[in-house]
Write a structure and sequence with these properties.
Number of strands: 7
CATH superfamily: Vaccinia Virus protein VP39
CATH topology: Rossmann fold
Shape: globular
Radius of gyration: 19 Å
Distance between the termini: 50 Å
Helix content: 25-40%
Bound molecules: S-adenosylmethionine
Order of helices and strands: HHEHEHEEHEHHHEHHHE
CATH class: Alpha Beta
């Protein structure tokens, strides 16, 4: 597989939409519909990507406008091209400097804040944007100790690209669950923090490498020249194929840990 793009690849990301949608829905399931549709308020989908979840938020919470925010033009283009519901809109923005145009009733974010270094320090500020009873809901992968991520580093060190990839950090570290609890507790009337390990069912060739290619592997690919990307990807794919062997039925199980936070503003 050739991976030449250095921007978010919306099509590759969507290839695993089912596995990625499940945690988004599990997070949404803990939101209180009574708080969603407040006059003059909007639901924000922070790091909305291709807008799939923004559209589901609009279906789940009729009556509330949903605004998807993302920094990637490619993702926003895909989101706009796929959306017909006039309650759903998209805007370019950096989550590190998020300032809502309309006051939020819900701030929701699926699989985005892990990209922002120091994101834990932003969460109290997000809570303060909410009215009393408003909800903050965040899901982040916390799989950085799994072989899929350790093998990125192993592949980085095992080729002529070693020096070039030495400083590449990948996804910002997601902290221990209790750290998020401690930071949000003083601002919350209700607070839930939990983790789930999903046994993701993947099929096809290099399924784990393909899965991470649109997310955690991206910073490594971006640091390489065009001609180095395919050999690096193949070195990583060979390592992941050993760590996550395909079963006789053609399925590759990819266990994946995710952290969930749902806080209600006091
Ligand atoms: C893994 S995708 C998740 C997309 C969507 N939430 C979903 O669940 O399908 C992460 C998204 O976060 C966006 N993102 C990463 N860093 C960002 C930042 N600093 N500001 C805004 N968006 C960001 C990326 O462009 C990407 O679309």
């Amino acid at each position: 597989m050739a991976l030449a793009s250095t921007v978010w690849d919306a099509n590759l990301y969507l290839k695993f939409a089912d596995a990625r949608t499940r945690p988004a829905l599990d997070l949404m399931g803990r939101l209180d519909p009574a708080n969603a549709a407040r006059p003059g308020h909007a639901i924000y989908d922070l790091g909305c990507g291709a807008g799939n979840i923004s559209r589901i938020l609009a279906e789940r919470f009729p009556g509330a406008p949903v605004v998807g925010i993302d920094s990637s033009e490619q993702m926003l283009e895909k989101a706009r091209s796929q959306t017909v519901d006039e309650r759903v809109s998209f805007a370019k923005g950096d989550l590190a400097r998020f300032e809502p145009d309309a006051p939020p009733s819900i701030l929701y974010s699926n699989a985005a804040y892990q990209w922002l270094p120091g994101h834990i320090d932003m969460f109290p500020g997000l809570m303060k944007l909410l009215p009393p009873g408003g909800q903050l809901a965040i899901q982040m992968p916390r799989n950085h100790e799994a072989p899929s991520h350790a093998l990125m580093r192993a592949a980085a060190e095992a080729g002529p690209w070693k020096d070039k990839l030495r400083g590449v950090g990948g996804i910002a570290r997601v902290e221990e669950p209790s750290r998020y609890f401690d930071v949000l507790k003083p601002l919350s009337s209700d607070l839930e923090v939990w983790e789930t390990i999903y046994q993701q069912v993947l099929t096809g060739r290099d399924p784990v490498a393909q899965y991470t290619a649109s997310t955690g592997l991206r910073p490594f690919m971006e640091a390489l020249d065009e001609s180095e990307r395919t050999p690096f990807y193949e070195a990583y794919a060979a390592l992941t194929a050993k760590a996550y062997p395909m079963r006789a039925d053609g399925i590759t199980l990819f266990p994946f840990r995710r952290l969930f936070i749902v806080a209600r503003r006091a």
